[in-house]
Amino acid sequence: MRIYNAFLIAALICSGAPIVFAQSTLGVTKGLISQSPDVDQAYLVRYRDKDGHTLDGAKSYRLRVPANPPAGQFWSVTGYAILSQEGIAVRSSRETLLKNADGSIDIYFAPTAPKGFESNWIPTVPGKAWWTAFRLYAPLQPYFDKSWPLPDIELVKRTRPFPRMAGQTSSSVHWLSGFGR
Among 60, 32, 178, 43, which Cα is nearest to 130's? Predict the structure, then answer.
Protein backbone atom coordinates (compact mmCIF):
# COMPACT_ATOMS: atom_id res chain seq x y z
CA MET A 1 0.00 0.00 0.00
CA ARG A 2 1.43 3.40 -0.97
CA ILE A 3 0.68 6.39 1.22
CA TYR A 4 1.92 9.76 0.01
CA ASN A 5 4.05 11.54 2.54
CA ALA A 6 1.78 13.98 4.37
CA PHE A 7 4.74 16.19 5.34
CA LEU A 8 5.75 16.67 1.70
CA ILE A 9 2.21 17.31 0.51
CA ALA A 10 1.55 19.87 3.25
CA ALA A 11 4.90 21.54 2.55
CA LEU A 12 4.11 21.86 -1.14
CA ILE A 13 0.68 23.27 -0.42
CA CYS A 14 2.13 25.82 2.04
CA SER A 15 4.89 26.84 -0.37
CA GLY A 16 2.52 27.43 -3.27
CA ALA A 17 4.56 25.01 -5.39
CA PRO A 18 2.74 22.66 -7.76
CA ILE A 19 2.12 19.25 -6.23
CA VAL A 20 3.82 16.43 -8.09
CA PHE A 21 3.26 12.93 -6.78
CA ALA A 22 6.48 11.02 -7.33
CA GLN A 23 8.36 8.23 -5.58
CA SER A 24 8.03 9.73 -2.12
CA THR A 25 6.00 7.42 0.10
CA LEU A 26 5.67 6.89 3.80
CA GLY A 27 4.78 3.67 5.55
CA VAL A 28 2.74 4.67 8.57
CA THR A 29 3.58 2.68 11.67
CA LYS A 30 1.96 2.54 15.07
CA GLY A 31 4.98 4.31 16.60
CA LEU A 32 5.01 7.24 14.19
CA ILE A 33 2.98 9.48 16.50
CA SER A 34 2.63 8.90 20.21
CA GLN A 35 -0.80 8.61 21.74
CA SER A 36 0.36 8.28 25.35
CA PRO A 37 3.13 9.70 27.55
CA ASP A 38 6.65 8.24 27.56
CA VAL A 39 6.33 6.11 24.40
CA ASP A 40 7.05 6.58 20.69
CA GLN A 41 7.55 10.08 19.22
CA ALA A 42 5.62 13.33 18.78
CA TYR A 43 6.16 15.59 15.76
CA LEU A 44 5.72 19.36 15.75
CA VAL A 45 6.05 20.59 12.17
CA ARG A 46 6.61 24.19 11.01
CA TYR A 47 6.31 25.39 7.39
CA ARG A 48 5.94 29.11 8.03
CA ASP A 49 7.41 31.73 10.34
CA LYS A 50 5.41 33.45 13.08
CA ASP A 51 4.22 36.09 10.59
CA GLY A 52 2.82 33.42 8.24
CA HIS A 53 5.56 33.60 5.60
CA THR A 54 7.07 30.54 3.94
CA LEU A 55 10.52 29.78 5.39
CA ASP A 56 13.07 31.18 2.91
CA GLY A 57 16.55 29.67 2.63
CA ALA A 58 18.08 33.11 1.97
CA LYS A 59 16.87 34.55 5.28
CA SER A 60 17.88 33.95 8.90
CA TYR A 61 15.50 32.59 11.52
CA ARG A 62 15.47 31.53 15.15
CA LEU A 63 13.50 28.84 16.96
CA ARG A 64 13.62 29.34 20.72
CA VAL A 65 13.18 25.93 22.35
CA PRO A 66 11.81 26.60 25.85
CA ALA A 67 13.59 25.07 28.84
CA ASN A 68 12.79 21.50 29.82
CA PRO A 69 11.26 20.10 26.62
CA PRO A 70 8.89 17.26 27.56
CA ALA A 71 10.94 14.40 26.14
CA GLY A 72 11.64 11.29 28.21
CA GLN A 73 14.58 10.40 25.96
CA PHE A 74 15.66 13.42 23.87
CA TRP A 75 14.43 15.99 21.37
CA SER A 76 15.65 16.89 17.89
CA VAL A 77 14.88 19.43 15.18
CA THR A 78 15.54 18.71 11.51
CA GLY A 79 15.45 21.15 8.61
CA TYR A 80 14.17 19.78 5.29
CA ALA A 81 14.24 21.20 1.76
CA ILE A 82 10.58 21.37 0.64
CA LEU A 83 10.77 20.08 -2.91
CA SER A 84 13.35 17.33 -2.39
CA GLN A 85 12.40 16.50 1.22
CA GLU A 86 16.15 16.12 1.74
CA GLY A 87 17.22 16.56 5.33
CA ILE A 88 19.39 19.67 5.64
CA ALA A 89 20.73 19.14 9.16
CA VAL A 90 19.73 18.00 12.62
CA ARG A 91 20.33 19.50 16.05
CA SER A 92 19.32 17.67 19.20
CA SER A 93 19.48 17.65 22.97
CA ARG A 94 22.11 14.90 22.64
CA GLU A 95 24.54 17.53 21.33
CA THR A 96 26.36 20.28 23.16
CA LEU A 97 24.22 23.32 22.38
CA LEU A 98 24.53 26.82 23.83
CA LYS A 99 21.78 27.57 26.34
CA ASN A 100 20.24 30.89 27.27
CA ALA A 101 20.37 31.98 30.92
CA ASP A 102 16.75 30.79 31.40
CA GLY A 103 17.58 27.29 30.08
CA SER A 104 15.99 27.80 26.66
CA ILE A 105 17.98 26.99 23.53
CA ASP A 106 18.00 29.08 20.35
CA ILE A 107 18.33 27.12 17.10
CA TYR A 108 19.32 29.28 14.12
CA PHE A 109 18.40 28.53 10.50
CA ALA A 110 20.41 30.59 8.01
CA PRO A 111 22.70 30.36 4.97
CA THR A 112 25.69 31.23 7.18
CA ALA A 113 26.33 30.47 10.83
CA PRO A 114 25.93 33.28 13.33
CA LYS A 115 29.33 33.98 14.88
CA GLY A 116 29.73 32.14 18.17
CA PHE A 117 26.55 30.07 17.65
CA GLU A 118 27.75 27.53 15.11
CA SER A 119 26.75 24.62 17.37
CA ASN A 120 23.12 25.87 17.34
CA TRP A 121 22.98 26.44 13.56
CA ILE A 122 21.14 24.55 10.82
CA PRO A 123 22.27 25.68 7.35
CA THR A 124 19.72 26.69 4.75
CA VAL A 125 20.09 27.18 0.99
CA PRO A 126 19.27 30.55 -0.61
CA GLY A 127 16.53 30.18 -3.21
CA LYS A 128 15.06 27.08 -1.55
CA ALA A 129 12.11 26.95 0.81
CA TRP A 130 12.36 24.64 3.82
CA TRP A 131 10.41 23.27 6.78
CA THR A 132 11.18 21.73 10.16
CA ALA A 133 10.14 18.73 12.18
CA PHE A 134 10.69 19.08 15.92
CA ARG A 135 10.57 15.62 17.49
CA LEU A 136 10.05 14.63 21.09
CA TYR A 137 11.22 11.08 21.76
CA ALA A 138 9.10 9.52 24.51
CA PRO A 139 6.98 12.68 24.90
CA LEU A 140 5.90 13.51 28.43
CA GLN A 141 2.58 14.80 29.83
CA PRO A 142 3.31 18.55 29.26
CA TYR A 143 3.25 17.81 25.50
CA PHE A 144 -0.16 16.14 25.72
CA ASP A 145 -1.77 18.73 27.99
CA LYS A 146 -0.12 21.54 25.97
CA SER A 147 1.47 23.15 29.02
CA TRP A 148 4.82 23.23 27.14
CA PRO A 149 4.21 25.09 23.86
CA LEU A 150 6.87 25.26 21.14
CA PRO A 151 7.00 28.87 19.84
CA ASP A 152 6.89 29.75 16.17
CA ILE A 153 10.05 30.27 14.16
CA GLU A 154 10.95 33.97 14.00
CA LEU A 155 12.70 35.97 11.30
CA VAL A 156 15.95 37.40 12.74
CA LYS A 157 16.39 41.15 12.35
CA ARG A 158 19.85 42.74 11.97
CA THR A 159 19.93 45.19 14.84
CA ARG A 160 18.93 42.96 17.75
CA PRO A 161 21.61 41.48 19.99
CA PHE A 162 21.76 37.78 20.60
CA PRO A 163 20.51 36.91 24.06
CA ARG A 164 23.16 36.48 26.69
CA MET A 165 23.97 32.79 27.02
CA ALA A 166 24.67 31.10 30.33
CA GLY A 167 28.26 31.95 31.31
CA GLN A 168 28.67 34.84 28.86
CA THR A 169 29.78 38.29 29.93
CA SER A 170 28.45 41.42 28.27
CA SER A 171 31.69 41.73 26.28
CA SER A 172 31.19 38.26 24.76
CA VAL A 173 27.64 38.86 23.48
CA HIS A 174 27.66 38.96 19.68
CA TRP A 175 25.59 41.39 17.62
CA LEU A 176 23.76 40.34 14.49
CA SER A 177 25.81 42.60 12.25
CA GLY A 178 26.12 40.82 8.93
CA PHE A 179 23.72 38.07 9.98
CA GLY A 180 20.17 37.94 8.70
CA ARG A 181 18.29 39.64 5.97
Answer: 60
